[in-house]
């Protein structure tokens, strides 16, 4: 087989787990922004939490729903 051809389709994944995003509620759904710097997480308590991957912290919490957020 042509190894150069196979290696061009390879994916780069982290080799180790380097942290966790901690929140008080259960995550139901999530979506990244187009650049991969922000993560929106829809929670079971109706909140939407925006995580900033550059600072590894919460950028914003939106509490606008009473039911679980099912899609973003």
From TrEMBL:
It comes from the Eukaryota. Keywords: Nucleus, Repeat, WD repeat. SUPFAM superfamilies: Nucleoporin domain. Gene3D superfamilies: YVTN repeat-like/Quinoprotein amine dehydrogenase. InterPro entries: RBBP5/Swd1, WD40/YVTN_repeat-like_dom_sf. The keyword Nucleus applies. One of its GO terms (cellular component) is Set1C/COMPASS complex. The keyword Repeat applies. It is found in: Nucleus. Its main location: nucleus. This is Retinoblastoma-binding protein 5. It comes from Halocaridina rubra (Hawaiian red shrimp). The gene is Rbbp5.
């Amino acid at each position: 087989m042509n190894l150069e051809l196979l290696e061009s389709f390879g994916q780069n994944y982290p080799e180790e787990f380097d942290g966790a995003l901690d929140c008080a509620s259960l995550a139901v759904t999530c979506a990244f922004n187009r650049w991969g710097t922000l993560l929106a997480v829809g929670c079971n308590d109706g909140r939407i939490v925006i995580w900033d991957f550059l600072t590894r912290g919460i950028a914003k919490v939106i509490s606008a729903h009473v039911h679980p957020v099912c899609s973003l």
